[in-house]
Amino acid sequence: MSRRTLLQASVRQSSADRRRCRFGFIKSERTGSVKLGDRSASRRRRAAVALSAAFVVGAGALATPAYAQPDTTKRVTAQAEDPCPTPVSIADVKQDLADGKPVVGTGWTVVKGTTPESFKVEVLAVIPDGIGAGRDLVMIEVSDLPSQNVIGSNGIWAGMSGSPVYVDGKLLGAISYGFTWSASPIGGLTPATDMMELLNAPTAGQAKTKGAAKNKVTLSAGQRQAAEARATAAIPRSLEKLPTPVSVSGLSDKRLASLQKTFDKSGRSFIAYRGASGGKPVSSSAVPTAPVPGGNFAAVQIYGDLTVAGIGTTTAVCGDKVLAFGHPMDFAGKVSYGANHASALRIMNDGADGSFKMANLGENFGIVDQDRLAAIRATIGSGPVTTPIKSKITNLDNGKSRTGTTESAVPEYTAAATVYGLWANYDSTFDKWGKGLATSSWTIKGTRAGGKAFSVSRSDMWSDLGDPTIDPAIEAADAVDALLSNEYEPVKITSVDFNSSVKSAYERYRITKLAVSVNGGKYKNVSSITVKPKAKLKVRVTMRGYQSTVDRNVVLNLKVAKRYAKQIGTITVQGGLSAGSSSFLDDEDLSCLLMDCDESEGSLNSIISDITSPPKNNVVRADLDFGENDEGEFSGDARTFAAAPVTGEKVIVIKVKKK
Questions:
Q1: Are 610 and 3 in contact (CB under 8 A)?
Q2: How would you list the strands of the sheet with 536-545, edge to edge?
Q3: Does the pLDDT at position 502 exceed 80?
Q4: What is the pTM of this model?
Q5: Which residues are CB-neighbours of 103 under 8 A, at least 6 positions away?
Q6: How far, in Å, CA of 222 to CA of 53, rounded?
Q7: What does the alpha-carbon distance between residue 142 and residue 136 come to, in Å, rounded to a whole number?
Q8: Using alpha carbons only, what angle is made at residue 110 by residues 108 and 115, rounded to the nearest 5 degrees?
Q9: Residue 516 has what pLDDT?
Q10: Alpha carbon distance 11, 590 (integer Å)
Q11: pLDDT score for 453
Q12: 363, 372, 299: which is closest to 336 by C-alpha?
């Protein structure tokens, strides 16, 4: 196999013929907490002046009066009546701060359920080019309004991303940055002026995912000191893009830990937690319910048994266009994720990752079609077209079977949806981890250049002392990845169909010795033989099962062609596990499921051949090789199949006489 991807065999540790990995959450070593103390109005005003002096560069013309203390009753009405308000000019904000005038507004977000609640937001400074070239970041402090408990001791939490902030009925922007590992009220806001530019971006289309965008804004020593004066605790060197809480259904702790590691390796600032499935797009003539500013927003990349949805907040709704998050999800440009409602369960306070919102998916209301630096954008209407991954798993221990479906809304994530979706069904049906034996067969269908249909199929047998479901799922996902990431033709996967049976009884054979019979003579256990041209060979292969004292024999037939007179070669006998069927499963993680890191060579046809041609794990293969080519083709071969995977290799030297 010539291709190698990081997708393959992240789940092994070294042994004689197998690697297995023990999954575990990759926790950040960052720790810390910030206690929020009471602050007088005068102290806040003094700090605002200090921060404005430290941050503000230049000044714009004053076009609006000083911003007043928020009126929550008025704000509820303004928000409800104008979900697409006029954006606040950042030049005006800079001018007011330079003049020492307080800039105070109201933010909206959901803490529990679906109803937005209000909180106070005070602008501390504007950081020029904080988000990107020509894109300023507004530094803010959040706090609770009287009788409200939105912020509490959690500070700014992951999942607040997109929470709109209004000042005098205008939209200042969306909360999007924070000190994510500490419960700090200090954070960053993406200006509404930048977000609103997405309203006129073209719809539809799909771009290849690019990974993480810029996610840090470095603070100077003076800026940190000014922020610390308000937060009453040490402030880190940089504000970070708020992580996206990702609701994941269908995975056990072990698989969820693997997925979190995959996110980390691919550079995605995601916090995976166990959530509910649901919200699949359906064909319906009913007009979907539009989201509301400050309400929950779920960007769904995978639906079904395995559901993967980023949770954030809706910022604005302008006609059939919705802006959310205030930062990118995958920074992938034109995309086609599902846009769903969600219901918040609670705000979790995690010591390693900071506080984050947990939510369950609601109904689909459209498509996320833009994933940009300032926001993600959705269009209200029909949901995305998805690729179905169907699996039927049969548990031979009890006769039960389950048919499951996972659907990928992102073509580049179809491989990830395959491996984790299959594991979800395996874990539900096999209902255990431990030694076992599995069979698998799958078919991948799709289209290639010119819209020409293709189909790729393979079957195999697997055994493992730790988890027999790991390898068959990875093999199918690797095939999907190889097809989609090829350099030669555009490929679209239209379906993946997977069938597998699994049982707890573990079996594996090991080749222990060889004996050769020449032209019907007696079998001899030798390290080399000398024969005449056209000789007929019977190779008896002796195998022994796992923890067994009983030998089993199979016989393979070879013939020495006349053209090999006066040559020296080898007879190599291998079990399928040693003959290369899983030789491509030797990298360390699954991050290529989410990244473009494959380096395929040849053509799409050669890639398909690489997928289908390797010997099966339970094959016993004898190759007669006289080294007459460099392509790995043999002068003669024979093979048979055993009742379980086979490992081991034995070699005999063969000399051919002149006559």
A1: yes
A2: 551-559, 536-545, 509-518, 646-647
A3: yes
A4: 0.79
A5: 67, 93, 96, 97, 122, 123, 167
A6: 10
A7: 19
A8: 95
A9: 96
A10: 9
A11: 97
A12: 299
pLDDT, one tens digit per residue, over 7-24 is: 333 333 333 333 233 222
Averaged over 64-79, what is the pLDDT? 39
Q: What percent of the chain has pLDDT over 70?
A: 76
Q: Which residue has the higher pLDDT, 332 or 224?
A: 332
Task: Classify residue 533 as exposed, middle or buried by CB count within 10 Å of its CB (0-12, 13-18, 19+).
Answer: middle
Residue whose pair of structure tokens reads 């596990």 in the numeric block: 577
Based on its alpha-carbon atoms, the radius of gyration of the chain, rounded to whole angstroms, reads: 31
Q: Tell me what pLDDT residue 540 has.
A: 97
Side chain identity at 12, as an amino acid letter?
R
**Could you please report the per-residue DSSP string of 403-464?**
EEEEEESSGGGHHHHHHHHHHHHHHHHH---SSEEEEEEEEEEEE-GGG-EEEEEEEEEEEE
Most distant pair of Cα atoms in the chain: their distance? 107
Determine which helix (DSSP H) or strand (DSSP E) holds 265, and give its type and residue range.
helix 253-265
Residues 149 and 133 sit within 8 Å (Cβ to Cβ) = no
Tell me the pLDDT of the chain averaged across its residues. Answer: 81
Lowest-pLDDT range of 180-194, 566-580, 595-609: 595-609
CA distances from 622 to 445, 508, 626, 650 (A): 33, 19, 13, 9
Read off φ and ψ for residue 63, nearest 5 degrees.
Answer: -115, -15
- The C-alpha atoms of residue 441 and residue 437 are separated, in whole angstroms, by 14
- Is the pLDDT at 72 greater than 50? The verdict is no
Q: What is the pLDDT of residue 50?
A: 32
CB-based contacts of 95: which residues, under 8 Å, 6+ apart? Answer: 59, 60, 61, 62
Residues with Cβ < 8 Å from 330, sequence gap 6 or more?
Answer: 209, 210, 211, 268, 371
Helix, strand, coil percent content, the chain, rounded in steps of 5: 20, 40, 45
Q: Are strands 436-447 and 244-248 parallel, antiparallel or unpaired?
A: unpaired
Residue 433 neighbours by CB distance under 10 Å: 16
Please name the residues in contact with 43: beta carbons below 8 A apart, sequence gap of 6 or more: none
DSSP letter at 328 equals -
Nearest to 395 by CA among 355, 351, 354, 438: 438
Is residue 600 within 8 A of residue 608, CB to CB? The reply is: no
